[in-house]
Amino acid sequence: MPNRVPFDEALLLAVGTPELTEPLDSSPRSRVWRVRLADRRLVIVKQITDDGDTGADADTRFAREVAGLCLAGRASGPALAPAVLATDPSSRVMVLEHVDDLGRTDDWMPGYAESLARLHALTGPSDAGTLPAWPGPTAADAESFLTLARALDVPVPSTVPGELAGLLERLDPTPHHALLHGDPCPGNDLRTADGVRFVDFERASLGNGLIELAYFRIGFPTCWCAMSVTAAPLAEVENVYRTTWRGLTGKDVPGDLADACAGWLIQGDALVERAHRGTADQFARVPAEDFEWGYVSARERLVHRLDVVAGMTRDHDHLHAVGRLSSALASRLLERWPKLRPLPTQDARPWY
């Protein structure tokens, strides 16, 4: 990564002259630097790169991140994201406030859940169109999930296709306008003295906040660091989220958490990292190969999600058959591959 930051004259006038630059780790889709300016201030400079995308795709990701950060900047009280200090759309560069990260702590989840609820509550119907709607599962995802079951010789109850069609209708993001981060994973959250702030809004969208509250149950589906959160910690974070949302909006969180979890289950792309999404039918790969992402394999992620949905839908009015199929499919995976491991718990993460 080059040390020279891509500042044009407008950025030099807006924020000052870079004096010392330090490249930081980032995805292949961006370049990030910590920069000390001539006036001794520290800032973060991020440039969205093509990385095989068309220029239009990279421009869209840049605009999406800036829009998400600006909406997050509405927060009253402790900030929820770094402030945007300046931008250069022509080179897809943004200059952001530098935020000191206090690092990992054992009890990070309640503060994370509170900040997530605060983020979601920042937007409403008047913000429609400022960001894309959340891109939820499709009919093709549902069919791919059913094809996987058949490939593993798991009978599909006759009512499952109808239940999945109803699920897709209920997951329609159109009635919802919560500000979704898009990838709220450990590593995209900074712990500060005033609470958690989120970074990396390239996938920001508008939708139902339960889609991201579901991360705790379903194993952080867009994250390399998949983990299992259970029992008391899970109850606490969900209570923190719902209480915070209710305090800010005066209403209960809309929707059904079981629907949100089932929506993540049937998306094969949630088994692979971002660079590989949309490139293949990931469920079709599962019977033949077990591909890893981070410390966890695709089959291990899938078994966790199947168990979660099976447990949440035993008495569910609209997903009962989907739950029975999920339970049977999890059992079949473990029968064929008995060495599959459970996801690490929040207190036993190998990367912690």
Task: Describe this structure in a few short sentences.
The protein is an alpha+beta fold. It has helices at 9-15, 55-72, 108-120, 139-151, 160-170, 210-213, 215-218, 231-249, 257-265, 282-285, 298-312, 320-336, and strands at residues 18-24, 30-37, 42-48, 84-88, 93-97, 178-180, 189-192, 195-198, 205-207, 292-293, 296-297.
Oligomer: single chain
**What is the arithmetic mean of pLDDT?**
92
Q: What count of helical segments does DSSP give?
A: 12
The rounded Rg comes to: 21 Å
Number of strands: 11
Alpha-carbon distance between the termini? 26 Å
Report strand order across the widest sheet. Answer: 1-2-3-5-4
Approximate helicity band: 25-40%
Question: Per the principal axes of the C-alpha atoms, what is the gross shape?
Answer: globular
- List SSEs in N-to-C order: HEEEHEEHHHEEEEHHHHHEEHH
Low-confidence segments, ≥5 residues, pLDDT <50?
Answer: 348-352
Describe the structure.
By secondary structure, the chain is an alpha+beta fold. The protein has helices spanning 9-15, 55-72, 108-120, 139-151, 160-170, 210-213, 215-218, 231-249, 257-265, 282-285, 298-312, 320-336; strands spanning 18-24, 30-37, 42-48, 84-88, 93-97, 178-180, 189-192, 195-198, 205-207, 292-293, 296-297. The strands form four sheets. The chain has a five-stranded antiparallel beta sheet. The protein has a two-stranded antiparallel ribbon with strand order 6-9. Strands 7-8 form a two-stranded antiparallel ribbon. A hairpin with a 4-residue loop joins strand 4 and strand 5 (93-97). Helix 9 runs antiparallel to helix 11 and helix 11 runs antiparallel to helix 12 (320-336). It is globular, with a radius of gyration of 21 Å.
